[in-house]
Amino acid sequence: MPFDSSLLFQVTFWTDLLRLIIPATGETLYMVAASTIFAYLLGLPLGIILVVTSPGHIMPNPWVERTLGTLVNILRSAPFIILLVALIPFTKSVVGTSIGTTAAIVPLVISAAPFVARVVESSLKEVPYGVIEAALSMGASPKQIIQKVLLPEAKASLILGVAITTISVIGYTAMAGTVGGGGLGDLAIQYGYNRFRTDIMIVTVVILVVIVQIIQSLGTALARKLTH
Amino acid sequence: MVLRGFSSRSFVVRWPWTAKCPCSQDSNRTFEIRAPPWMARRRDGEKGPSRNSDKGGKPLIQINQLVKKYSSRQGTIIAIDNVSLNILQGAIYGIIGLSGAGKSTLVRCLNLLEKPTSGQIVVAGQDLTKLSNQELRQARQNIGMIFQHFYLLQSRTVAENIAFPLEIAGVPKKEISIRVKELLHLVGLDDKSSAYPAQLSGGQKQRVGIARALATKPQVLLCDEATSALDPQTTLSILNLLRDINQKLGLTIVMITHEMKVVKEICTDVAVIHEARIVENGPVESVFIKPQSDIARQFISTVFPNELPADLLKELSTHRDSEIVRIQFLGSRASDPIITDLLRSCDVRANILYGSIDHLRSTLFGTLTLELLGNPAQLKEAHRYLASRELKVEVIQHAL
Question: Transmembrane stretches, by residue range (chain A) (predicted)?
Answer without folding.
Answer: 29-52, 73-91, 97-117, 158-180, 200-223
